[in-house]
Amino acid sequence: MGKVTGFLEIDRREQKYQPASDRIRHFREFTLPLPDAEVENQASRCMDCGIPFCHGSTGCPVNNQIPDWNDLVYRNEWEEAARNLHSTNNFPEFTGRICPAPCEEACTLNLEDVPVTIKTVEQAIADKAWKKGWIKPEPAAVKTGKKVAIIGSGPAGLAAAQQLARAGHDVHVYEREPKAGGLLRYGIPDFKMEKHHIDRRVKQMEAEGVTFHYNENIGVVRPLQELLDGHDAVLLAGGTEAPRDPGLPGQEMEGVHFAMPYLVQSNRRESDEPVNEIPILAGGKHVVVVGGGDTASDCVGTAFRQGALSVTQLDIRAVPPMKEDKLAVWPFWPTKFRTSSSQAEGAEREFACATLGIEGRNGRVTGVKCARVDAKRQPIPGTEFVLRADLVFLAIGFAHPLFAGLIEQSGAALDKRGNVKADEEAYATSVPKLYAAGDMRRGQSLVVWAIREGRQAAHAIDKDLMGATTLPR
Predict the structure, then answer these.
(1) DSSP character string of 375-421
(2) Per-residue pLDDT reduced to its tens digit, 130-157
(3) How many CA atoms lie within 13 A of 17 on its CB side?
(4) What is the pLDDT of residues 237-256, one digit of tens each?
(5) Which residues contact residue 185 at a Cβ distance below 8 angstroms, ignoring those fewer than 6 apart?
(6) Residue 234, helix vs strand vs coil
(7) How would you class 251 by CB atoms within 10 Å of its CB: exposed for 0-12, middle for 13-18, buried for 19 or more?
(8) pTM of the model
(9) Strand, coil or helix: what is 197?
């Protein structure tokens, strides 16, 4: 490493946020980037580790060569750092914004609670690469004559499409929505990642030969068999959309919604797309969000920006420890108390709290009945209470892909969780020529895992079609 004493001389410094009172007034990104000189200082803190857990499967699903590009940034070799970063990650500007950074938890310096600001450096590299014009289309020099269809344009589908196009295949992406991006566009709010980041990647991929087909709900408006007949390989990358349903008494009342329709509506409004459903808006309302994960947090931040009077988030888990036992869990992702930027905007958080049902009047929600839970997450008699609510969002995760249409038509075998069955080597389903990757295969997961799966599925497909492949896994 260039500065072997950097971690001793320079303190960890993260990007700051706009004040909550300012950022809740808009849906734009609100992080304040560090100056280049400070990014270089932060990169210099990367140690010469004997075993850098940050870029193994423990820390980074796409195996980013983190020590290498940290060193390059420290040496002011930003363009080479961008090339290195893109060699393992097709979309570092996505992950630099929305990845929870397991790499930082796996950093050796995290043993002292001062890990390298890897995520900040990654975003800085990607943003500079775009600003300087270093990111350009990379069309294949030779075409293979093979044609591949990809169903779904989320992070897994986009990563697979770009890799396969660069290998020389004729790649066609079929997307149900009017624009590409999947969860990136319609699930993640603009205040976490603005959508122009997706748009410029789509333009790059189109210049590389990828053809996007929008408003194509395969299995509904077009049979899957048509794609199987017309292509040499078909990749299922549609995500996992069926929400976990708690089946609460009173859940059918007006004002109770699953999280994703709410987030999709909000993202459509911000992108000036039509919203054809009954509007779900939090302005002037008391909002309760059931669930403690990222989707729940996105509902919290969206509700505040729409003018909610109050937002309360319910989590059945006990309050986690403020600090983990490093020697027991490092370098793995620890369970500890975390506060998201959305929660920091004023949310009330109820832990060890079970949701028992929805109360209402004249078919309209008025409150959420709750109770405290014991160590086994069972309600404790006598601890019941009711939270006032005009709007309730159920955000307790996703169970499996939607079965109706595409999955039913495919006839592909499913695993015990209801996901499309395919292994992590071949990514092949039980149906000839049909592959699966991303959340549709592995279940609900992180964007960075979807990118990894898309890249690895592209490797497997190219190898099957050509007998060999130069695409990395």
Answers:
(1) TTSPBPTT--EEEE-SEEEE-S-EEE--IIIIIHHH---B-TTSSBP
(2) 999 999 999 999 999 999 999 999 999 9
(3) 16
(4) 999 999 999 999 999 999 99
(5) 177, 179, 195, 198, 267, 271
(6) strand
(7) middle
(8) 0.96
(9) helix
